[in-house]
Design goal:
It is a single chain. The chain is an alpha+beta fold. It contains 27 helices and 19 strands. The strands form 6 sheets. An 8-stranded antiparallel beta sheet has the order 13-15-14-17-16-11-12-19. Strands 4-3-18 form a 3-stranded antiparallel beta sheet. Strands 1-2 form a two-stranded antiparallel ribbon. Helix 9 packs across helix 13, helix 20 crosses helix 25 and helix 20 packs across helix 27. The longest helix is centred in the C-terminal third of the chain and has 43 residues. It is elongated.
Amino acid sequence: MSAAPPTNTQAPHRWQFIRVGGADQVIFRSGEDIARLRELDQKLWVALACPTRGIDFDARTLDLIDADGDGRVRPPEVVAACEWVCARLRNPDVLLEGSDVLALDDLDTGNADGARLREEAHRLLQIQGKPDAATLTLADIADRGELLSAMRFNGDGVITPETTQDDAVRATVQEIMRTHGSVPDRHKATPGVDRPRIEAFFAEVKAARDWHAKANANDRTLMPLGEPTLAAADATRKVQAKLDDFFARCRVAAFDVQAVAALNPSPEAYDALGANTLDLRADPIADLPLAPVTPRCVLPLHGNRINPAWTPDIAVFAERTVAPLQGARDELAETEWLAIKQQLAPLQALMAERPDNAAASLSLAQLDAFLQTREALFALLHDDEAAETHNKLLVDLEKLIRLQRDLVVLLNNFVSFKAFYRREGAIFQAGTLYLDGRSCELTVQVQDTARHAVLAGLAKTCLAYCDCTRQGQKMSIVAAFTAGDIDFLFVGRNGLFYDRQGRDWDATITKLIENPTSVAQAFFSPYKKFVRVIEEQVAKRAAASEAVGQGTLTGFATKLTTADQAPGTAKAPAAPGRPAGRVDVGTVAAIGVALGSISAVLVAIFGKFIDLGQWIPVALIGIVAAISGPSMLIAWLKLRQRSLGPILDASGWAINGRMKVNVRLGGLLSQTAHVPPGARRVARDPYRERHGTTGVAAAVVLALALLVLAWRMDWLDNRLPAALQHSPTAAAAAAPSSQVAGAGKQLLR
């Protein structure tokens, strides 16, 4: 019979939520809420990812949470951080305080991790001269680098010359650095050597020492000169091929004197050398014979008759090989060279087995001295690597204190957006923008304006992208205008931006995404557009009239100034035109018909309104609704869709819900200028606008609105003939009443 699977006896956790921004958001009220975050359905999380840079949050804390180091924090990493810190504390409720001071009594010594952290905290306090302290601050951990740099062993596995306290060991470290390079110490400015370099060096020294054991200095057959035989063999090996070539050439020259010229360099070879810049160690010179080839078969060991490229090597050969084996001399005969080769032949065979590494060139005494320091150097390395355990515990202490201070802040800006909706300053808010008589608190740092605008436009929010500069620094932000009007927002307008640290930046709008900020703004939008169109048309007509007038004056001035230049020249016939000072009869008739039609239309509309009686206000309201209604409806729909999600998604976040920004919240995020309570104005504005012109403009707009309504409702077809019967002016103007009505409607169209 199989055993039943284990059951989870822990009761489900009871969460508390608040409905805000169109979504249910969890409230963290106890440490147990944090410890059991894994049980919260991720569909209820506000965010599913956020970047580790570009937000107002401690970057070091985010790096410690970002386990995979990809620059983004996701729910599994947040859950892991919560469980990690709660497992090391007696009571997770201390996380709600957000303090950067860790009380050692808060560490849970009931588990191994908490006990090790407590021991490491006591050790650190003792090193800092505070053995009786009961708390550890983030400042005590923050200068961990300075602490480790002052320690002899800091756990990075690097031994520097300063780490050693013995001259012989220090000499070994310096030799390893010379032959195998160095590695920088993570906590000190001086370089040193690590385990791979130390092991490689002693492996080479051991191989070289084993080879020296075969080359017994007491064996005169193998080492005729004793230990100096190795130096003689090295000097011989460097010039052996060149010596064999020289004596071979001399043997051929002794066989036939006619071959001497061919065995020595030809004049053409020297011509080729002379055509280039000479380098005595270059291959073209080194390839020449070792000395002039003669039938004597004798090599000069000193003087200018030796090939300049080989002079240093021949001098060493003469000193270390020829003089000890054959005696000091100025020339070397072929028989003597053969004798030297025979004496060194046993050692040359052994040297073919000599290790090819940097230690092979060291003497036996040097190799033995280095080998004697091997145990001491590895003991130093072991002590330093053992300190790495303490170093990791220091990192854990830093992580614990940082999470104790910052974890709740992250949860209130990641799992829920409590900090944003309570206007406590969310981590994604870059600061406050002051521009166009208002302050905008919903600002987000932007890396790429063009890419950000593509997605952020779906937020149905008026967004202004700004380039901010300060003391040579530059950054880009996007600010949401959620209240007030947008009539005077345009690219190029300047403002002032304050970041979260209170620093002021010059801000300039570089891109604008227009969306309504309120229904009231949408109500006046059609009239503003209508007035703006009229102003533009009037300005264009005025500019055209001014241009014509300027051209006429210029032509008249030109005629006046050139009238006396050619008195005998006949004037060109003027182009035929209308007689000056006379008005075309057709024009007068057209004007009369137009005036009559307009007056008839106005009389008809007025009569229609008189017939409405008490319904006149309703009609006026209907006209206004017909004009402003569509704009207000569109604004209302967009305001219902206004959300924070696309703005943050475009900045690298992954927002789980829509996160609505309604009108009330928008009014708080973008505050317009108001005189503070209790203040009073001591004088009226002497430069205020006169309202007479405004009233006339409003009357004109209203009249035009009434005309449009009359035309759309076909009131003109029924009212216009009767109105013309009671209008002598219109009847006398021209035509039958039906024609006048048609002209009026055509004019309105």
